[in-house]
Amino acid sequence: MPISKNVKACLSASSWIRKMFEEGARLRAAHGASNVFDFSLGNPNVPPPERFKKVLADVSAGPDTGHGYMPNAGYPETRQAVADQVSMEQQAEVSADGVLMTCGAAGGLNVILKAILDPGDIVVGLAPFFVEYRFYTENHGGCFKTVQTGAEFDIDLAALEQAMDKKTRAVIINSPNNPTGAVYSAQTLEHLGSLLSEKSREHGRPIYLISDEPYRDIVYDGTVVPPLFPAYENSLVVSSYSKTLSLPGERIGFVAVNPATACRRELVDAMTFANRVLGFVNAPALMQRVITFMQGQHVDIGEYARKRDLLCDLLADAGYDFIKPAGAFYLFPKSPQADDVAFVKILQEQRILAVPGVGFGRPGHFRLAFCVEDDTIKNAAPGFARAMAEARH
Ligand code: PLP
Q1: Domain boundaries for CATH 3.90.1150.10 within the chain
Q2: What 8-state DSSP symbol labels residue 174?
Q3: Is 106 in the pocket of ligand 1 (CB under 6 A)?
Q4: Within the chain, which residue ranges are assigned CATH 3.40.640.10?
Q5: Which principal EC class is assigned to this enzyme (predicted)?
Q6: Which top CATH class is 5-48+300-392?
Q7: Backbone angles phi and psi of 75, in degrees to 5
């Protein structure tokens, strides 16, 4: 066998997005790009803020000293700038040495998991979930366990309590959520914090709460993403500039540790070591220097709000059942027939690409990413209506 059995199994488990990618290429070749309505990828299509170009130019024109190795945790001034912003968002005094610069949120999640997991430790994720969590957990010898959220994608605390045992090392939450767009309330976070405190005491070791927040600034209708740090001491925020500044290819993100976390220094040291030995070494130097001057900035959220409304209106007209997302740029409607994979095939016949809910651990739904051109949304309307009619047939 030319590749590891484990990776071979992972490849087939992760094939939904790949399948859609291949299907998109096939349909585009057959029908032309403008006749294919691809809602399968969360690749931001709104440009970075204007200020980004200026900061990039200024930073590039500066003294030619910024291309060498650096401390594995990142530039001190970048860590300070991020710490100041996170302190405001999290209503806690986060210092520069509680921040680690990473290669995107993905790099940050891997760094955290490498730092905290022993073989066989369990990481709990709430379904539907970002599909990579399972692979990231398994990268570091952990076992990924899922707990379903409620009908409105709120956290089911009773189910979570049932799922946790002595091997539970961490719980990952993601708000605003991919794929549902749900944003957890301050009260939900408080209840979650109380549950994790109780369980950590009962099991005699801390259960870390990891909040994956790359969509924090992409919220609608005045929604505010509440701070997590006041709700639970053993918590970490992992985030990036991939979505809020539309820079996913630049691989820049961070991890911030709650200042109240037990053994915070040891945890940061472990994550800094993980950043090094996972081969990231440090987050990209140029982007660290750029984002030092981009704190508090974000893409034009009005663009995504308009796309969300366009898509919601046409899906509602066609009879789809969904919860309007409070944040992020995804919609997770109910599949009009129980078999979401079969329904996604019906959509494909209309040249509409979506990802079945089963790929996120929640069958009976499908995901549409609305970070696409307005015309893609508008021109897909007849196809969505025909697919609904066929499913009801
Ligand atoms: N977490 C969630 C929920 C995501 O949707 C994504 C990317 O789509 C990531 C993490 C990874 O983001 P990054 O590009 O910053 O690594």
Answers
A1: 5-48+300-392
A2: E
A3: yes
A4: 66-291
A5: transferase
A6: alpha beta
A7: -65, 135
